[in-house]
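User: For my dataset I need records formatted as: sequence, then structure tokens, nothing else. Please produce one.
Assistant:
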Amino acid sequence: MAEQLTKLESSVYHYLLDFTAENTYQPSIRDIGKQFKIKSTKTVSDLLQSLARKGYIERDPARSRGVNLLGFGAALRTQPVPFYGRIHAGEPALVPEHRQGFITVDRRFVPSDDVFFLKVKGDSMIGRCINDGDYVMVNPRQDPRDQDIVAARIGEEATVKTYARRAGSVVLEAANPAERDITVQPGMDFGILGVICGVFRPSFDANLGGNSMQS
């Protein structure tokens, strides 16, 4: 998962998005310092460097406005959400080379800065209105509760299922009587990627590329 932003980093990131959308150019380091009452240009530069390290921007330190907002779509109050075509076994499960692109979303529907999209393959969750070809938004910051819909990792494969606990074991329940549940066994290469917080269903082939997540 992308590394979580601090409260200040999140505010600076949103400011970069909105300022650029409004002005068609990026704020300078001094603009950012003035907005957040930060007197030290080094402190601002360190904040931008942290955003770059965490995968939200790219920097050209030789230029005052040398910031590339990854996936930026130039619309006010929106946020680019990364789409991953595959996952990586072990941790971290999401690595930059598996990112296929970005889907720009109204920020009101984004519960945290580190959400991401995966594409569903299969019909195991049709009983909970998640269909083959849907894009699910995953919130890695939310801890799963019983009966939450989650994205989980088993080895290098991702799956979307209903999270449940039975007799002390985690069970990933299908929402289709034709599909089997998955009981997580001791020693299984397993991890929770996050809780599903949104479903996007295009009425055409979006063709974003990459592999799909098995449901």
